[in-house]
Amino acid sequence: MKPVLALGLLLIIFSCGKEKVIHLPEINHSEITEINDVSPAYLFYDDTQKDSVELNRKNLISTTNWLVNIDKRLTLKQVIPHIKFLQDKKQNSSHKNKNAKNYFTCNDISRKNLGFIEFTDITFHEGSSLGYFSKISDIPTKKRVKIVYKSSKKIEIHGIIKVTDVYISNDEDFLNDIKSLFNSTHEKTEIIIEINDNTTFQSYITLKSDLLKISNQNISLLNDEFIFN
């Protein structure tokens, strides 16, 4: 199998004499631009069949960094089970490298090259964070703000000032909105992500990329992410 990057937009894969194309998710800027010692996995979108998704993981080596290439048109409902499968496969491998990490491959349009978002320590949960935290003994060490992504037109931001606060944003304005909201607080804050499972992988990556842009010594993203329907 040989991947070829075409025009910085598409990943063209030649497998068994057949050409397959992945439309990589786009980001405006990535802090991670180069990774060595890698193995690729691919999640393909098939527009000829409803809800069709195909995972190709033949060349994965457990001791390497994994680059997971996912078509941006797929929904989280389609991709999350495969992502969790890959995470479990690596975690349960008899051959481990504690320094090997997992990354989503993206098209960094600001550089016209590849960029990467790490997800090594992310745990994906079904349902809401409220249900999850009610079942565990959880005493947060930081203030928590919850981002609930219901659709591109309705992103709820809970608890910027106090727990009962809910601010409504959308994809286009989200980054500027959340930057201005966080400017009003200097507390150490942990962000919880809840996102609808019908959301496209592109929208998920855009949300993650935006939140990573505002993360700093006071603002961090919780490694537990919640996928609801």
Count of strand segments: 15
Outline the low-pLDDT stretches: 1-8
By DSSP (H or I, 4+ residues per run), the number of helices equals 4
Shape: globular
Question: What string, H for helix and E for strand, traces the elements in order?
Answer: EEEEEEEHEEEHEEEHEHE
Task: Compute the average pLDDT.
Answer: 90
**Oligomeric state of the chains present here:** single chain
Strand and helix map with partners:
Layout: E1 2-6, E2 10-15, E3 18-23, E4 26-27, E5 38-46, E6 52-56, E7 65-70, H1 76-91, E8 102-108, E9 113-118, E10 123-126, H2 129-134, E11 143-151, E12 154-158, E13 166-169, H3 174-182, E14 189-196, H4 201-214, E15 219-228
Parallel strand pairs: 4-8, 5-7, 7-8, 10-15, 11-14, 14-15
Antiparallel strand pairs: 1-2, 2-3, 5-6, 8-9, 11-12, 12-13
Helix pairs in contact: 3-4
Can you put this structure into words, describing what you see?
By secondary structure, this protein is an alpha/beta fold. Helix content is 20%, strand content 40%. The chain has four helices and 15 strands. A hairpin with a 4-residue loop joins strand 8 (102-108) and strand 9. It is globular, with a radius of gyration of 18 Å. Residues 1-8 have low confidence and may be disordered.
